[in-house]
Amino acid sequence: MISDNLNLIRQQLPSELTLVAVSKFHPVGAIVEAYEAGQRIFAESRPQELESKALEIQLPVEWHFIGHLQTNKLKMVLPYVSLVQSVDSLHLLKEINKWGADNSKVISVLLELHIGAEETKQGFFEEEILDILFNVSSFPYIRFCGLMGMATNTDDESIVEADFDRIDSFMAYLVELFGELTDFRQLSIGMSSDYKLALKHGSTMVRIGTAIFGPREY
Ligand SMILES: *Cc1c(COP(=O)(O)O)cnc(C)c1O
Question: What is the number of structural domains in the chain?
């Protein structure tokens, strides 16, 4: 039961932590069920799926986007979301800023830091994020809210913890260095398999799919 899963997870999370329910590949009915159990924030990873669910659902839910976003798909995503968690390139950031200017909307984003071992994984290197944050004035339509990361996909907890530790330390460094960026406070780390470890490493936001909705059908 989705409501049982949600209650079980909530019991394990500190009250100030944000639980994002990852509803990708699950039907709108599952989202409604989670909503009725009190969940308000949902995340999707594919533009088309986000747009169709956002238009279909008749409930005041909050949407986050967590997948790779191509710049030609911005209009399917940006009108609906309160946070883009997965900004992974300078080109994308510039295009989001431009869309924000054209539509008079400031877009809240997290910058995705490449932390896992997988070479294919998206994300910035530390130096690139520093460059961006030294130049926030170039992005008047972006609100920088923090970092997102995905740990290496492994059963070896020491590797996952090392990944989380790295992003947690970098986050602390950025908060110190850019103290005037008062919105830059969110650290989105932790998924179904590793959120308990993420809680030990400064997570302020977990993104949980399978542990709430069950396995995805591809
Ligand atoms: C799918 C996805 C999740 C949720 O994964 P689960 O293992 O189902 O909890 C979290 N973050 C991102 C970026 C995802 O794509």
Answer: 1
In a domain, 170, yes or no: yes
**What span, in angstroms and rounded, lies between the C-alpha atoms of 177 and 82?**
26
**Does ligand 1 have an atom closer than 6 angstroms to the CB of 151?**
no
List the chain residues with pLDDT less than 70. Answer: 119-121, 218
Q: What is the pTM of this model?
A: 0.97
CA distances from 97 to 31, 39, 106, 170 (A): 30, 30, 8, 24
Residues 6+ apart with CB under 8 A from 164: 115, 149, 151, 189, 190, 194, 197, 198, 200, 201, 202, 203
Q: Which residue has the tokens 């591809």?
A: 218
Q: Is the CB of 153 under 6 A from ligand 1?
A: no
- CB distance 122 to ligand 1 below 6 Å: no
Q: List strand residue ranges (DSSP E) for the chain, in order.
A: 18-22, 41-44, 62-65, 81-87, 107-113, 142-149, 186-188, 205-208
Q: Quick one: pLDDT at residue 10? A: 97
pLDDT at site 116: 80
On whether residue 58 sits in a domain, the answer given is yes
Mutate to test the pocket of ligand 1, among 45, 65, 114, 152 (most ligand atoms within 8 A of CB): 45
Q: Give me Rg for the CA atoms of the chain.
A: 17
Mutate to test the pocket of ligand 1, among 42, 63, 207 (most ligand atoms within 8 A of CB): 207
Domain that holds residue 86: 2-213
Does residue 218 lie in a domain region? Answer: no
Instruction: Determine if ligand 1 sits within 6 Å of the CB of residue 154.
Output: no
